[in-house]
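The material for today's practical consists of a large collection of protein records. Backbone structure tokens are a discrete shorthand for how the chain folds in space. An example says more than a description, so a record of this kind follows:
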Amino acid sequence: MSINRNILYEKVILYNSTKIDFDIQLVTTLIKQTIFNDPTQNCKVKGLKKDWSGLPKSKSLFYAKHNCGLPIGNLTSQLFGNVYLNEFDHWVKKFLGIKYYGRYVDDFILIHEDKSYLQSLIEPIATYLDNELNLQLHPNKIYLQHYSKGVKYLGAVIKPHRIYIANRTKGQFYESIRRQNQVIRTSSLDIELKQKFISSINSYLGITRHYRTYKIRRGMILEIMDKQWWKHAYFFGGFLKARLKRNSVSKYESI
């Protein structure tokens, strides 16, 4: 929500002007339309108002600053988020001398053997982000942790020689299945509800497959998922992916 569209556009065009060897005018036009499109204009709000309760203003385009913010659901937003901080990555590694550094969109980690040195970097990093990108560090999401205790990052806990899935992610997986169980027990299923179930399950299976989580995936599906779902879906690859059964999708619905 804080990405400045003008700054982003300049960075993307500057990069593409030296890398693309085909119709640059067409690509530039598409990029410009994507970046500067305002989804809050003439939009149709679906769902219930209560679904919006508790949503921080910082997470909504309706409250973003003028000419700032990208729609979270767009795949291009994730890509542009990485492009936006590309120069920051190089600055951290080269200017600050951080050898072990990682970032995805707006989450990043720095690893160094000197705790005091890491503490001294907070101010220059905040200054760089503010001056160059109009971004602010979140005051409540900066923490120092000894590597042996692990670091929470992108839904996982990174420890030496192993990465664990975070308890919060496991809890969200459980809650997702619980909600889907409530659906099948109280609703008459149509293709939309079935597809929603498959999409929800596969999103969590996609996350958990990156870690040693076979027992977790198996337990969630065999022990927590309502057995009625087995009439409509099946799993394969060691509970890595779900699909609808053929007899669960009518000829009309599958077109």
